[in-house]
Amino acid sequence: MPEVVTATLIDLAIIITKIVAFTFMVVLPLVPLSVYFERRFSAIIQDRVGPNRVGIPLTLFGAKKDFHLFGLVQPIADGLKLFLKEDFTPDHVRKAFYWLAPVLTVVPALITVCVVPFGPDVTLFGRTEKLVIADLDVGPLFIFAISSLTVYGITLAGWSSNSKFPFIGGVRSTAQMISYEICLGLSVIPVLLYFGDLNLNNIVQEQADNGWLLLPFWTDGKLSLPSLQTTLFMIPAFIAFIIFTVSIFAETNRMPFDLPECETELVGGYHTEYSSMKFAMFFMGEYAAMVIGSALIITLFLGGWSAGFGFDEAIANFSIGDFRIGGFIHVGIFLTKLLVFILFFILVRWTVPRFRYDQLMKLGWVIFFEAALINVFLAALIIAAPGMASTITVIGLILLAVVTAAIIWVAKVSEPPAKVLRA
Amino acid sequence: MSDTSPATAELKLPKDIAAEKGMVNVQIDGIWHQFPKGTRMIEACRKAKVDVPYYCYHPKLTVPGNCRMCLIQMGMPPRLAPGQDPTYDENGYQTIGWMPRPAISCANSIAENMGIRTTGELVEKCREGVMEFLLINHPLDCPICDQAGECRLQEQSVGFGRGVSRFVDMKVKKPKNVDIGPRIRLDDERCIMCSRCIRFMDEVAGDPVLGFTQRGTHTTLTVHPGRLLDNNYSLNTADICPVGALTSNDFRFQMRVWFLKETPSIDVNCGTGTNIVIHTRGDTIHRITPRQNDEVNSNWMPDSHRLNFHYIDGDSRLTDVLIKEDATHRPAAWPEAIAKTAEALSQFDPSKIAIIASARMTNEELFLVRALAGELKTDQFATVPREGENDGLLIAADRNPNTTGAKLVWNSSDPSASLSAIREGVRNGSIKALLVLGEDLTAEAGFTTEDLAKPEFIASVQLLAGATAEASDVVLPGAAFTEKRGSMVNLTGRLQRLNRAVEPQGQCRDDWEILRDLAAAVSGNKPDIFLIEDLFKKVAASTPAFEGLTLSKIGHLGTVVTETGYQIPLLTNERARAAAGIING
Amino acid sequence: MPTIKLTRPKLNVGEKIYFGALIKGFFLTMMHAVKSLRGKSYGAEGLASSGLGVTMQFPEQRWDDHMPEYYRGAPTLVTDEQGRERCVSCQLCEFICPPKAIKIIPSEIPSDDKWAKVEKRPFEFDIDMTRCIYCGMCEEVCPEQAIYLRKDYLITGTSRAEMVHDKKKLYEIGGVRVGLVNKWNELK
């Protein structure tokens, strides 16, 4: 066998291993895990217990007591239940699209996993491999491109169900996702300007070296106070973080933006007519999107796999023999951050009430869109300031202030007067 | 004209205006009314829609005035001193001087310028007192009493009683659960001594077996020594008993009355066509009671007719369509049976087919029988006469409920005329196919079991298993009288309605639907009537006597459609007594 | 119809930004989370919490000791101290029962029975526990003090037929109740 073929085969094997490992053994298990956390955490918030029974049914095999594992097996039982349920296709649906829709929601969410850096590179058997499936140089763009396909799944589900509640859910979802994708794209520009790179792995490496975007307290692996420019940049970075996070909430149809499937109005929203595994796919797609969204926020703003405070170099170089496996520790750090952020998602869901649809649209178009635009210029000004004459900087600042004031004024003036409510 | 009319109005007092019409003016609870002279106060109050409670009073019986529940306050104009002229108020009435003591309203007639108060402290106190006396010895039997729910004592205790008993002594014990007749159970403790039952048995049934013994609180209703309350009208005493003293053995502990749905209908046991109420719960008939119709049965009904409904859900009721194969019957479906019957009938020459219908069928069904005979091109169709004895009250000699209807619908003077010819035809073999509708031929029709073996084909619409059903090649289960709608004409020529109280059992269907489908199958057309209302319109169009009528226009009390000259004896008695002033009528 | 004019409350800038309220909300929910993890949720003690939140863990912990006097469990028929079945099948409970769970077929007490003077008793008395809503109307309406809601709350079955309590079962759960009014004891 020629050497080239062997090398290609090995490369292929490594890629498949990475795909299987990261997509099916890291992200997919996170879905039931986040479902479990969702139920358990919400229960605790509401002074309840939550699922704490389903474990290993040892009594079935003659033992005296079951091993209940704090109910961790509950999501598996739920999944099994959904799997065994009758897969009912109503008579009035458009079958092809009806069947396609759940796939279209879950697949894009899983594809985006491929550019998320789970850790730095590791060295095994003399080969150095990056802990990312595809080390693309257009990471964030790839994610936006693919995840915007999710909207097709939801729209198709709503439309093909041929029924009013799913239809309204689908339309709401389409409008909402398209609106918030703009904020999502605009808010991330300052970050990309700052790093000057679109490769997510490089962005994380940069943060590991010179401090996280929102926590820039070390330089070249040593603790130090940030420079003036970095400190100033924390303002646009923080604005970007908030817009980005809120937009991710909206993109993943999570509370408080879950209007496409709000139970009180639309029964189940776009998946009202779905049952069994097709429903489970929507469910999975939603949670997978949440996992990916969290991963993206962590990667861009909170240092990704980096442990921070100058420990990264040491951890990355941790090795047993020839195997430099410190990268796996970073994967652990990344997953920990991910879980914490997922818990934050859940906390928000059980704290904040649902927005009204007009409030949601106003927030997206009137506030976040303008704020993200101004934020781009502000970030650009801060980054460009050292290379420009101070007068130009000042003029730029004044211009920005005027434009901001003008936008606020326009927004205020265009607002309809407060309605008198009748009770 | 405008300036003269007040003067004339002033001259003519209300009493004069009323007197011209034979009426008198009476003030009831402050409002002036006019009633015919001689009306009882209680009837005047009823006509004025003022509620006066009573127990013993019954418009069809004499008035003993012994329950004292109908007490009212009465007033008359003060008696004039000699030479004094009466004074009139601006409306022309004299002032009423109210009497300080109450009067019973059932036994007193009204008079000119009389005043009646059915409210006020005096009347209310009196009623409360009467109720308290009545309840002193009344047992706490309501949970087990069949009358509960339709008990006047319960209703009026709530309406006029004081709610709490002040009686601390032992109640008087009297016989309970007394067997005074085959159909009636007596509970003397519950009796309030209204004597309605005694008067009924004496005046209406003409069999005075009931009476009171003892005195005071120990007064006991009892049956004459050596006699039983076994008259055929005895159950009417349970109907008129305002409490649960007399209850029906047949209905005893069957169902509480508040569960029962009431369907007005008519009785089909004789030509009188007694008006009845069918009491049902779900698809079970629990009892049948008479319904007041002063032109037919007054308020009464014979026991034999009233209790003749148990066969409807009895053991011998046919509920399946049956087709005979190899000498045994097998259950089948309706389309198959109809098709088989139509096919079998069409194989015979019309002269060999005969239809024996029943005068127990409704006008609509008889109309379809004639239509079916037309389709089969046979003129051999007849009803079966059913004669009994006239009991001199309500039961007519003609025990068929719709003989008059058959005459009218078939336009023949004797619908059963050709029955003997058919019978002969069956015997001598000239009739090969027989369609029997609702009759068991071995009973009144005079056939024998051997006769029934002779025709090649018998199809029958049957209610109950019997010799005819056994001999039939196709048995079509029909509906009982409580299960169908339709109309019948009684012996006096009154068109009356049957109403559906329960759903037909099992596979049973309305007879008119069976006949319609049979006629359609014979002719090869599709059925075109789907509502009994439409069918009645067709009947009315082809029957001159029913012209312009619809099923709903008949009304609950019926409509006279022809004059027959027949008199119901009980009504004759009643009218004579009313004319003599013995009862209010 | 009276018309009341309402205006939205005026919000200041801080309130309009909404973040303050958000943080307050997070604080509140987290407080609850911490409290329930420590088993100190409001009312946890009174409800015999299992340690997490206020919930009682059912098969291991039971309601029984915490049941209030007025608890309405399964409806049952009772006999009195003389062993007489108190029900006379007046069917008032059947009438009042909102979900129509009760079905009674009355019968006459034979004349040789000790309690023949009561005349009437149920032949069949079925309560469909899949229908029963435990409202207690039957107990309230009963003129004979014959039907009582007992504290049995674990009414389970593996089939619909099993969930229909017949007369025998109802007397079995109901048992004997003493101190009731015995109006049928009067001399008759």
List key phrases describing it.
heterotrimer, A: 423 residues, mainly alpha, two-stranded antiparallel ribbon, two-stranded antiparallel sheet, 14 helices, 7 strands, B: alpha+beta, Ubiquitin-like (UB roll), Alpha-Beta Plaits, Rossmann fold, 3 domains, 5-stranded mixed β-sheet, 26% helix
Q: Can you describe this structure?
A:
The complex is a heterotrimer of chains A (423), B (585) and C (188). With 423 residues, chain A is mainly alpha-helical. Chain A has one domain. Chain A has 14 helices and seven strands. Chain A has helices spanning 3-45, 74-84, 95-111, 139-147, 150-160, 164-195, 200-210, 228-251, 263-266, 276-301, 312-316, 326-349, 357-384, 390-414, and strands at residues 119-124, 127-131, 218-219, 222-223, 319-320, 323-324, 421-422. A two-stranded antiparallel ribbon of chain A has the order 1-2. In chain A, strand 3 and strand 4 form a beta hairpin. In chain B, helix 14 (467-471) links the parallel strand 19 (457-462) and strand 20. Chain B has 17 helices and 23 strands. In chain B, the strands form six sheets. Chain B has a seven-stranded mixed β-sheet with strand order 15-14-20-19-18-16-17, with helices on both faces. Chain B has a five-stranded mixed β-sheet with strand order 2-1-5-3-4, with helices on both faces. The relative contact order of chain B is 0.09. Chain B is α+β, with helices and mostly antiparallel strands and 585 residues long. Residues 1-7 of chain B have low confidence and may be disordered. Chain B has three domains: 5-119, Ubiquitin-like (UB roll) (Roll), CATH 3.10.20; 142-158 and 171-312, 2-Layer Sandwich (Alpha-Beta Plaits), CATH 3.30.70; 315-485 and 500-550, Rossmann fold (3-Layer(aba) Sandwich). Chain C is of the alpha+beta class and 188 residues long. The termini of chain C are far apart. The mean pLDDT of chain C is 87. Chain C folds into two domains: 13-58; 67-183, Alpha-Beta Plaits (2-Layer Sandwich), CATH 3.30.70. Chain C has five helices and six strands, in the order E-H-H-E-H-E-E-H-E-E-H. Chain C has helices at residues 13-17, 19-37, 92-96, 137-141, 167-174, and strands at 5-6, 75-77, 102-108, 120-128, 147-149, 164-165. The radius of gyration of chain C is 26 Å and the shape is elongated. A three-stranded antiparallel β-sheet of chain C has the order 3-4-6. A two-stranded antiparallel sheet of chain C has the order 2-5. Classes of the chains: A mainly alpha (423), B alpha+beta (585), C alpha+beta (188). Chains in contact: A-C, B-C. The A-C interface holds A 41, 43-50, 52, 347-348, 350-352, 418-423 and C 3-8, 22, 25-26, 28-30, 32-33, 35-37, 41-42, 44, 50, 52-55, 57. Strand 7 (421-422) of chain A pairs antiparallel with strand 1 (5-6) of chain C, so a sheet runs across the interface.
